[in-house]
Amino acid sequence: MTSLFDQLEQVSLRTKGSSDLSSLGVMDVLLDEEPAIFTKSKKDFTPLDKVTHVVIANKFMVLAMANNVLFRMNLHSPSERNEISLNKYTQGKLTNLFLDPTGNHLFLTFASKSKSTEMPELMYLSRKSDKIKTSGKFRTNEFTAIGWNNMNESDSTTGPILLGTSKGLIFETEISLEGDKFFAPSLEQYWRQLPNYLPLYGNKEVDGLVFDIGKNTNTPVTTLEYFQVPGTNKYMIFAATPSRLYYFYGSAEMEEKPVLQQVFQKYLNVSETDIFLASESRLGYSRLQFWSENLIMPNQFAWVTEKGIYFGQIDDLKDNRIATVKDKVSLLPYPKPLYEDYSQSPKYPIAIALTEFHILLAYTDSIKGMCLLSKEVVYEDQYNEAFGKLVSVIRDSRTGDIWALSENAMFRFKVHREERNIWQIFCVNNQFDLAKKYSRGNEVCYNQVLLKEADMLFEQKEYILSAQRFAEAQSSFEEICLKFLKVDEPDSLKIFLRNKLSALDPKQKTQITMLVVWVVELYLTKLEEIRLQGLEKSASYDEVQKQFETFIALQEVADCIRSNKSTIYELMESHGDKGNLIKLTIVSKDFERLIRHHIFKNNFRDALEVLKSQNNFELYYQFAPVLMQEVPKPLVNTLIDQGKKLGPLRLLPALVSCNGELHYLEVIRYLEFCIVKLKNADKAIHNLLVSFYAKYDSKKLMEYLNSQGQEVSLINYDVYFTLRLCAEQQQNEACVKLYGLLNLWESAVDLALKVNLELAKTMADMSPENDLELKKKLWLKIAQHVVSEKNDIQEAMKYLSDLIKIEDILPFFSDFLTIDHFKDAICNSLREYNQKIQALKEEMEEATNSAEQVRNEIHSFRNCFTYISSADKCEVCNMILMVRPFYFFPCNHMFHSDCLLAELEPCLGMTKRNRLSDLEKQLESLNTQSNSDNNSTGLSGMTRRDQVKAEIDNIIASECLYCGENMIRNVDKPFIEDFEYESITREWQ
């Protein structure tokens, strides 16, 4: 059932939430009603008698009833339960139960009924056993508190534990189950004698005593807790009395027993005020409880005394003395009842249950839940007489479950999102980090925290931090901007805008553009202000400049600038910021504008550097003409560095527009690079290089022409264009070369005679060898030139050869020359003629003799004969030769006519093969005709049939198959044809 306080709280929260949502400008929504923070449910459990004591740990419950019966039950499995009668073990009155966090170890303390007959007793009961064991070692002490080992998980030993008495003594011991004995004999060495600086009690040394809080004042220890700092040998020990909370912190080695006594030793001679937190109290008890997030080390504690609730935080690494703990402790008053009755005396809690943000205070007739931060009551529940008095409220330290037991009933509490409204408390207390931590799951609440923090920072004139918080929050954009504009804080506004920009979705193009332009304007204004103060080289200017460069380098900003280049450029130009204009073009990769800017400022080398730094090769073609005029050498170096990445043809406009010696030298250097290194074969490139050579360097022109060779189809330049260009530039030697390429040998020799006689001779030698008439004509031109120009008879005589005779050059000489000048040449010529006539006669005689010899051989061959035996066989088929028509050769090889034809036909050419096939058809046709047809004769006196047979014989029997030239021609023919290979291979397999 939801309590009245929870209902009021929920209504209040919904009211506040509606107001907050309205202030944000969003539509109010109806929030689903959440359950109260604390809800209670009654369990189906009724004890057999009134409950007097109860403990719960790790879902294991032990309670004692008025009939002196001990009841145990597994809350996880309620069927696991048992009862133990205490009357069998003692007649004393049960004063308390102590159960360790694992639920395995239980201590029972009993008070004597009569001081003269019995003493206080301490008994032990294991979860695994039904037998209670009695201790005689501590029989004289009344134990009121036990500090369990929170790290222990064993069910057979407790590990080191602390025991507090009603007289303020603190003992250390360890219980180990071995056989039926209570304390293991081996632990005797664990309890050493009391040090001589502790007081003696009844002239007796006290075993196991590690500290005395009471100092003979009979001050009971109400709570004992100790924790080991994870990963260290440090220990934190808390001991509470009705009016004091002691805190001990120190190191201890587990190998040395007693372990925890090592922590107490350094406090034995310390002033008492340095080890406890005091609270005046007339109560005979106090309650101390811890809350831990990880079940190992406590994060906070609550100490309930007469004066109120002491609530504090704990840091296991920093809190090494009580002073640091005191600094974080606050005193909370007890909650007042809803309807306070001033006639009644004040009530104090008998038990507490601590959660992270709340505390449940158990009274004999009610339970109140109070928020530890707001100090407000959030829950109140009354218990009527039907359930009996409330015995205790318990929080299971292992599971976090909260249980309440009255004399006759059992209840379970559930905690529902107790942190739901904690953010508001932190926010009111200006603890914004914590407020954001606990409101992060609710966007509206989280936004409220951000707005409040931003407003507070704004009021404190922490404008930079305020801008950052406003940027994180969802609020009126215009309102926030106006706030910073009113206080003249452009830097803070800039931060706000930048943070807002980073939070925008990339699809919000319009908002991004607006913010980018505004931020750029703020940066430019700031930079302009510093420049106007003459502080352009100051550290402040550099800092703002660096921030601006970082901003425009952001990906979303750079994309926005590229989309709105004209606007940004105009903005920068309006502020006169040329430096940032250049940098911006670099960031936005607008290299064309940057290059134009440098060219406009006549910074041609800078323009070239920008051109080199980018990868858009179209810009090379665009700006090369201007840069070639101004910085030809660096540009050509750059073009060469780019190599094949650039197309030389597209650079022609820049190359042909050059004037001056420096320019043409650089153009030639680049063209030579294209031709030699890049192997460029474009005629336009070669023609341009030839034109520059023709104008400026005739030596390189000839070297180039010679390197291209004499084959017109293989040269890369236009011969006719080059010839015309060389003729215009009077490059005669080059023209001679080109005339030769065009086979204009006469023109080449004529022009060469004007240049160089040797060149003319070279061209005459280069003329076609098979055209003797042309060659003779060219050499006659040279001879005529020598005779007419130099009148050198001896030089002219040197040209006499097989082509040119003395009679050919005689017309070139003057009529006044005497024959004495040519006597030797004429005599030599006549001798040559005589020798040729004699050689011809000898050749004629030799030919006559050869003809006569041939005639004699033919005549003798006609009368030649041979003998053929009946046993002779065909060389091909190895059958008797005379069974079929055959051929007999002078080499004595014999073949059947059909065998010879079959062997010879594949070796015949296509023409002979076709002719042979035709002749065979004719012969077959003639064989079927009448004898009259066969008897007809021609001019030769042979019948048509004989003529056909003779022609067939001439084809197949002109030479022996084995001894003739046919065998030599087919020496490389394989024995097995390709198409026969597979079949023959299978046959051999």
Short description:
Belongs to the VPS18 family. The protein is α+β, with helices and mostly antiparallel strands.
Describe, in plain words, how this protein is organized in 3D.
With 989 residues, this protein is of the alpha+beta class. The chain is 43% helix and 16% strand. It has 36 helices and 30 strands. The strands form 8 sheets. A 4-stranded antiparallel beta sheet has the order 1-28-27-26, with no helix packed on it. The chain has a 4-stranded antiparallel beta sheet with strand order 2-3-4-5, with no helix packed on it. Helix 21 runs antiparallel to helix 22. The longest helix has 40 residues. The chain is elongated and about 175 Å long.
SSE blueprint:
Layout: H1 4-23, E1 38-42, E2 51-57, E3 60-65, E4 69-74, E5 81-85, E6 93-99, E7 105-111, E8 121-126, E9 133-135, E10 143-147, E11 161-165, E12 169-173, E13 209-212, E14 223-228, E15 234-240, E16 244-251, H2 261-265, E17 276-278, E18 287-291, E19 300-304, E20 309-313, H3 322-327, E21 329-332, E22 351-354, E23 358-362, E24 366-371, E25 377-382, E26 390-395, E27 402-406, E28 410-415, H4 422-428, H5 432-439, H6 443-459, H7 463-472, H8 477-486, H9 490-503, H10 509-532, H11 539-552, H12 555-563, H13 565-574, H14 578-587, H15 591-600, H16 604-613, H17 618-630, H18 632-642, H19 652-656, H20 661-676, H21 683-696, H22 698-708, H23 719-728, H24 732-741, H25 745-755, H26 757-766, H27 772-790, H28 793-797, H29 806-809, H30 823-862, E29 886-888, E30 894-896, H31 897-904, H32 910-928, H33 931-935, H34 944-956, H35 965-969, H36 978-988
Antiparallel strand pairs: 1-28, 2-3, 3-4, 4-5, 6-7, 7-8, 8-9, 10-11, 11-12, 12-13, 14-15, 15-16, 16-17, 18-19, 19-20, 20-21, 22-23, 23-24, 24-25, 26-27, 27-28, 29-30
Helix pairs in contact: 4-5, 5-6, 6-7, 7-9, 9-10, 10-11, 10-12, 10-13, 15-16, 16-17, 17-18, 18-20, 20-21, 21-22, 21-23, 23-24, 24-25, 25-26, 25-27, 26-27, 32-34
